Amino acid sequence: MTIEELEQIAKNVKQANEKFDYEINVCMDLACASQGADKLKDALEKAAAAGAKKVLVRRTGCMGPCSHGPLVRVDGPDDPQERLYRKVNASHAEAIVKSLGGAPVPDLQCNLDEHFDKQVRVVLENAGYIDPEKIDDYIARDGYKALLTVLTEMTPNGVVHRITESGLRGRGGGGYPTGLKWGTVAKAAGDVKYVVCNGDEGDPGAFMDRSVMEGDPHRVIEGMAIAAYAVGATKGFIYVRAEYPVAVSRLTTALREARRHGLLGNNISNTPFNFDVEIRLGAGAFVCGEETALIASIEGRRGTPKPRPPYPAASGLWGKPTLINNVETYANIAPIVRNGGKWFYNMGSERSKGTKVFALTGKIANTGLVEVPMGIKLREIIDVIGGGVPDGHTFKAVQTGGPSGGCIPAEMLDVGVSYDALLKMGSIMGSGGMIVMDDTSCMVNVARFFIEFCMTESCGKCIPCRAGTAQMFTLLTRICDGTGTMDDLALLEDLCSTVKEASLCGLGQTAPNPVLSTLRYFRNEYIDHIVNKRCSAGVCNMHAAHSEIRSEVLA
Amino acid sequence: MPLVAPPPLPSEDKRWKIVNGTMRKNGFARHALIEALHTVQSSFGYLDDESIRFVALSLRVPLSQAYGVATFYHYFTLKPPGKHTLTICAGTACYIKGADKLIGAAEKHLCVKQGQTTPDGQVSLMVARCVGACSRAPVILCDGEVAGEVTESQVREQLERWKAE
Q1: Average of pLDDT values for B87-108?
Q2: Helix, strand or coil for residue B70?
Q3: Burial of residue A21, with CB atoms counted within 10 A of its CB: 0-12 exposed, 13-18 middle, 19 or more buried
Q4: Which residues of chain B have a CB within 8 Å of the CB of A360?
Q5: How does pLDDT run across A394-412, given as a tens digit for each residue?
Q6: Distance from B128 to chain A by nearest Cα, in Å?
Q7: CB pairs below 8 Å between A and B: how many?
């Protein structure tokens, strides 16, 4: 496959699409699919075939505002803007097809201009526009152009330089500079090197990586291939959660198609570069998001982390230099190569460049996927893009970073989103889960929920994490059931610092964050539970408040 | 190819051939352990001693390591699932929107705890960490089929429907 051939495919697709008067795109991501999007697509195809106009009905990945799904977008000559329809079901198919050439169907119109205006789409640029199982659709939107440009016109060093220049930082949560990581692996000695994509999206409440893998799988593969060229690897692995069967099947199809087009395999684009990718399934362990545990899992062992150094960049998979990046990081690579490092560098805030995809969920009107430039105020994400807290409730906190992150209160909402600002507030960027809580959520209970999660997911290798999280859970249970004392609170705080300082890997080191951040901003709720035996949100039932039996703490 | 010949298939059951196929595709390499166990679970529904032993011997992995992997990962189950499986998502978004109430309602209705199967083998009640459908929380999976914005009464209705079968 050469660039000319690639351009020919893109041209063919465009010519084929021009034969149609209209394109009807149906979102078939999990949220819409669970509400009958497949039946809707069949009905639209049937109605379109019976109608007079030439219509292309296409299935696409996630369009974004999932709470309005199933979503349908009509592109055609009727109006300058695309028409977005919400809450569409199969019975609306005929009305939608009939409306082509005239006014939009009134009851279904989705007015989310504000929601979309604040967003900048880089990673999600194709989401909602391509059929994820058709490589030609991806190629028609400049797909694989970056890879072939890199192979024919750039040196591996030049690629590393461009990524460094862009200021891209790891999107898995830690925020390590991507260019620096690539440079380290590129410089590492050894003939055999590996490239790994971390698609083990274990953070509950986050689904960005799933959407990218399901909606635009080739983007991830292209990013990995460029990375492999830059660091000198010939083999890649995508580690995906087994809980995401659709992502696995889409990636399998995408890999097959890429091989068939000569975009993976030996002598790609008639250059000496060889590269292929294998999929590895996770098996439900949160700790496997940690890079050394992920390596252990790919090697077929229990997912327990190892002390670093040596870092995977020096000694990773089977002891070879290994580059591990998150799905969203790889998804950013092709646009950076195409548009230049400066283009990316000019987006975002001072030390956090580019955009970030967030999964906005919880007590908020517009739940779904959003992509915003770094530096945007949290308030804008929640009130404008998210549409605020519904049902007359008031905003209490937004949780970012999952079980490793923290809860950010209302008074901090005017802070711009960046790795450093979130860290300063006691939370982390994380992989991009953003869960909004209102006055019906008890912050002590939320802290207990996360500690229970970390306790269950602790691999058991190091004692601070294995025993510490269990004792923290018991202490929080006491406070939630009304038997907690101020001594328990002091012990809890003490344990937080022990677990944070002494744990082996990121799971344990960040496990106390939900407790520490709620203690920092919502200490009065803890005191209310302990002293007044009262849960102002009405979540904890305090059933044991007057009994003599207390949960046993061994610490 | 392995130096030692792989063990014979445990029985005539065609599903063993599928399991063996996965291992062959990976050249009977040790790192194919998790892949092989995935194939066992998707073919047989769960992992038992016989299947873990067969996979371990075929891949020349110590039994302790194979059993360690089978019990370490939550996705693997050592107990046969019921005829139907109700999985309730307990990810953060679902929890905030009341997944614990759904779990409570299902436990009360079925008289089993999460992770257990009813004595008649009809329904297994499972709790998932997150299925990635957070925007429609709370979410349940009825035999793998995702349903969003679920209420307690909908959970009870679904369980009644299965019971009536």
Answers
A1: 95
A2: helix
A3: middle
A4: 135
A5: 999 999 999 999 999 999 9
A6: 9
A7: 139
